[in-house]
Structures are given as C-alpha cells and as structure tokens.
Amino acid sequence: MSSKPLGETMRTGHRAGIRLGAALLAAGFLAAGAARAFAIEGEGSFDGDLSDMGPAFGALADGLAPLSLPQLPDLSAGALSPALPGAALAAPAAPVLPETKPVRRWAAPAPVQSGDYTLLTEPFSGRTAVLNLINNARTSINLTIYEIEDPPTISALIAAAQRGVAVRVIYNLYSFRGRDPNAKYITELQNAGVQTQAASRQFEVTHEKTITADGTSAVIMTFNLVPNYFSSTRDFGIVTLNAAEVAEINAVFDADWNGEQAQPTLPELVWSPENSREKILGVINGAAKTLEVYGEETEDPECMQALINAAQRGVAVRFITAVLSDRGGQDGNAAERQVLNDNGVQAKALNNPYIHAKVVLADYGTSNAQVFIGSENFSKTSLDRNRELGIILNNPPLMDSIESTFNSDWAQ
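-> structure tokens emitted (412 positions)
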C-alpha cells in the first residue's frame, strides 16, 4: 500500500454514490465506480454527484501505513549565490540514492534559472530556495500555507522576525478536523513575535503555498513546508522576481489578511476561486500537439473531459497521477485513469516518488508552448472553492527541465 507523505494531513472524503457518467456526456466518460473513499490533501468534500456540495470534511485519518518511499538526503544547506537577489539559489549536488534493489533512477535536475524565474524540482532542490528567500529578507515576509511543519523553515521565520523583518503567516485551519497539524508550529511562531492568522472561512480550504520577501521576490510552490516534501515527493516551485507578479501576490495576501475581496488581474497568475478553472482549461483546450500532465487527483469532470477532448482531436496526452490510497489500499485515481485510457489519453500511476505536483505542459517544443504550475488539484473544490495559486509561463529553459523530468518519470 502506498500512502501520502508523512507530515501531510490525511483526510478521508466519503465518496458515496459517485455517478460520473451522467455528467460527462459526449466523450463517454463513463461511471468511474459506484463508490470510493480515499485520503486527499487540500480538499475535504467530494463532488461525485457533480452538484455544489457545501463543506463536508471527513475526519483526519489515523493509523496510516508508514511511508514506503525511499528517503533521499536533505539538500537544503546549499550556499547562497549572488546571481538571484532576494532568492539566491545554489545548485545541489546529485544525491546518492539509497542502497535498495532495484535502485529507482529518478531525474535529478538542479534549479534552472532563466530571466526572472527559477524552477525548483523536488525532491532534489530541497528547501534551499525557501530558506534563502527568508534569510535574505530585510523588511517583510508574507507566507500563505496549507501545512507548515518544517523545523528549519520555522527557525528561519523566527530569526527573520527577531532581526526586525515584519513576518506575517496565513495558515489553513478550519478545514482540519480532529488534529491541527500546524498548531505546534504556529504557536512557536506566535511566541517568537511572528504575526499569524488563520485563513478565512470564505475559502473551503486555503491550499495556496506561496512566500514573498521584501516585495521583490516570491516562491510559488506545489509543495507544503513539511520535511517529507523535500525528500520524497515529485513537486515543483517557481521563484519569480517579476515585480508585477510579486505585487499582485502581496495584494491578494493583504486582501486575505484583512478579510477583503481580492481582485487579481495578471493573466499569468492562476487564482482559485477567482479564475483557475478558466485558465487551466485554457491551457488544456489550447493544446494542438502535446499535453504532459502531473496530477495528484483526477476527480474534476470538466478537466478530465477536456483531456479526453484533446486526445480525440489528435493531441498526444500523457498523464501521470499519484497512487492515491485509502486505508483499504485502493487507488482512488484508478477508475478515472481507466476512463482516460479508454478514451485516448495515456494515463499511468507513479508511487515512487509520490506525485504531489500539479503541472500541465502544453505543446512542448513549439512556439505555442506553455506550462501551468500551481497548488490547484483537478477537483471542483480546489478550482472553485479554495484559495490556491499557480502560474502559467512560456519560458523554454524551464519547460526543457520539466519535460526531461516528466520523461524520466514516464519511463519508470
């Protein structure tokens, strides 16, 4: 059985009476199973009947099997580099894989810098970029996070506050049931003078994972600030020094902090609940040649239908999903992968590394190539009711690296 990474909150969404066939119409996206119950991250409600269900969060799962993924070395202690002010990165050395048989040959790209952007690929980039951004901050740090349980990151935030940096943290709280995984660490931050605030109840889940520093740099992450995300999961992050993007991220942070309505406008930033469904579907529907997708979850009918439509118009669609297991060991994505495979999409599961990334790479190698990277899952809750953030870029060196990593993962 493969479970989600340790440190990541596990909740069981009770998925009774799933009837996907009635809503997916022309392309034959038939019923994906009569019922399923599996642990998911960043969700908390199930939309199997395709209606607008209110918050219906399951209890926190306990008694989960220990993480079966190999633990790679911590690569977070890289030296600062002057090349990227405010978010300096150091290329980590290639890790030594555990002595297991067979040895899993993961791709191990260093961070890739191009223009205003740097691509982070986990589990090999580690926490270096996050720590560098925090350690280099001189005036302000704003962090919006779903889950924060990483001691080095906590220590860096406390040190920043103690040297006079204004540190503010918005953290997810109200969607958790039972045990709040952030409680201990939020208390540590509060005791050290860090300003913290539980995310607004206007969002079903605050699942965004973004940090800004000094109004000049930001990291948009698919990963949480939890140790296992730096050692065991396939995830990505984008460091941006683009002034307009950083300003909008801070403006939305301020709106969320003050309980006001955010009004994002930049076409490349992808915000839930404001515009992520439209923009992600735009990337999928605009593809003419290829689509390469990472997704932890495969439950949103409109997104799945868009992938099928792309395949049926001649686009080569490859989709790598997580092995999303519940306590009974059933893969919660299996039925949807089968439907995708039955309708022209090439879909497969990978559990080593655990697929936590949310990425759509379209038309790689063409003049129309673009890539979405963000916190949004393919689910109605994530796209329509959560606070989430992603970014769409057409930066060739970054897309080269993502393509290489995807091909390495696909070959497993």
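The chain is about 25% helix and 20% strand.
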